[in-house]
């Protein structure tokens, strides 16, 4: 059989000229699928160009990857940069996570700005930490009424540490201030923006994902001889502070670190030390914050 060379060349030309099938563009969901398969490097590779183009969900997830050290080395500066990019775009979880990260790192002014924004939008963790800071005077002048309003709203959403903090506030605040706090909470709840019909895409459910990470990779224990401490709360009764320390002292990053009870007026602050550096205390707080426990580093005397 004799082949027609012209037809063969034409067929070859057709094959060469035929365009390759277009690859579907990668999405945030593709990165989440890779993340859920523990292919963290692939997830980061997918999210990076999307985040660079301004996708807030991708920027938030990328910030979490750098914060947790998944697919990349832990880099809190990079985590802060990507979380801030998402937070500025209005990403609620990014605003909260960035605020907590900055709070743990000691940049309280910046932290309060983001936590206040997230608290005003009704994010439970932000309301707890911001409300506690207002109550203790760590965000400027003490404001027990607004503090009570935020913490009560966080407790109403079922956040365990908020329920504990609210009970402590109930024990120390007079009834008239609590009533004003409740009225303010109701007003803020009505004024809060309605939740989006399409919740943002993110890496798993926030509480489950972060609690799992905290258990799997606790902050390494530090020497108990350092001068840095972590503050875990302020209580109207010392025995409540002692109870919290007893609850946390059996596991990292609190295990092996003694408690210090600091009396400030009618309030007892629970501080745990001593961590050898601010970085070690910040790392401990990052682990505890992921579990919903309010925490920030303080330098001991």
TrEMBL record:
The domain of life for this entry's organism is Bacteria
Record-level Gene Ontology MF annotations: peptidoglycan binding
Q: Where is this region: Disordered?
A: 190-222
Report biased composition (Low complexity) as residue ranges.
Answer: 190-207
Q: Where is the signal peptide?
A: 1-24
Pfam families for the chain: Sel1 (PF08238), SPOR (PF05036)
Task: Tell me which residues make up the SPOR domain.
Answer: 222-301
User: PROSITE patterns in the record, alphabetically?
Assistant: SPOR
* SMART domains reported for this sequence: SEL1 (SM00671)
Q: Which UniProt keywords apply?
A: Signal
UniProt KW Cell membrane keyword: no
UniProt keyword NAD, yes or no: no
Stored PANTHER family? ERAD-ASSOCIATED E3 UBIQUITIN-PROTEIN LIGASE COMPONENT HRD3, SEL-1-LIKE PROTEIN
User: What name does the UniProt record give this protein?
Assistant: SPOR domain-containing protein
Which organism does this sequence originate in? Answer: Sphingomonas sabuli
Q: What is the lineage of its organism?
A: Bacteria, Pseudomonadati, Pseudomonadota, Alphaproteobacteria, Sphingomonadales
